[in-house]
Specification:
Layout: H1 3-14, E1 22-23, E2 29-30, E3 33-37, E4 48-51, E5 60-61, E6 64-72, E7 80-83, E8 86-89, E9 96-104, E10 107-112, E11 121-126, E12 136-142, E13 148-151, E14 160-162, E15 164-172, E16 180-183, E17 186-189, E18 196-204, E19 207-212, E20 220-226
Parallel strand pairs: 3-6, 5-11, 12-15, 14-20
Antiparallel strand pairs: 1-2, 3-4, 6-9, 7-8, 7-10, 10-11, 12-13, 15-18, 16-17, 16-19, 19-20
Length: about 230
């Protein structure tokens, strides 16, 4: 920042036209973010939020340094913020008003009440976020009668797949056989007497995947898992 610009910023701040805050991406002066847990009039209300100075909920920010003013009104909740390079939290017991200086990098950040994480939580992204790999779907079936298969979404029998994250929906239609899948690092099965539908999620690694019925070992099949190009 040049001396002229610094003098101008300091002058504007002195007369109240700039509220002191954090230095964001590119050296831009930004107003602080406001983190709140509970409400001033109802301290232990199940409420948690992160907003900018205009009162808008934070969903995306540029990477850089930020100031967060934390209003923890609750004695049963806390504000816990975590993400790349950041791990800050108030105490669950007691109330507090504090200020955090943090630096956000590219990625996803999450905040929650540690005492009630499923009820009080939120998240936002910073900069460029690489989406997680897509989960590919496969469909397995055992029964009726002596039949077993693994097929793709198009209904074709699977012979070869690329390593990665998968969801396998298993329809077990018989009480005479089960579906048993083995692959590098994977060993999952339904019960022989079980009949119903289950969904398994796992990561397939390169190698051979085999599926069979434990009641009739000749009822079997396999497919090859190859490394991604």
């Amino acid at each position: 920042m040049s001396y002229v610009r610094l003098f101008l910023v300091m002058s504007l701040a002195a007369v109240g036209l700039i509220v002191p805050g954090a230095v964001g991406a590119g050296g831009t002066i930004t107003q602080p973010l406001i983190a709140t847990v509970g409400l001033p009039t109802a301290p232990n209300t199940y409420a948690i939020s992160l907003r900018d100075s205009s009162g808008t909920a934070v969903t995306h920010l540029d990477p850089g340094a930020y100031t967060i003013v934390v209003h923890d009104y609750a004695s049963l909740h806390n504000f816990d913020l975590r993400g790349p390079g950041v791990s800050m939290a108030t105490d669950i017991e007691g109330t507090s008003q504090t200020t955090w200086n943090v630096t956000f990098a590219n990625g996803t950040y999450k905040f929650q009440c540690d005492a009630h994480p499923t009820q009080m939580h939120g998240s936002f992204t910073v900069g460029t976020v690489t989406p997680p790999p897509a989960v590919k779907k496969l469909f397995a079936q055992v029964g009726p009668k002596r039949a077993i298969s693994v097929k793709n979404a198009a209904g074709a029998r699977v012979k070869r797949v690329t390593a990665g994250k998968y969801s396998l929906r298993v329809k077990d239609l018989t009480k005479s056989d089960n579906f048993h899948l083995t692959a590098p690092g994977i060993n999952k099965k339904t019960g022989v007497k079980f009949r119903g539908t289950v969904t398994w999620k796992f990561t397939l690694r390169p190698g051979k995947a085999t599926y069979r019925s434990d009641a009739h070992r000749l009822l079997r099949g396999s497919f090859l898992v190859v490394a991604a190009a």
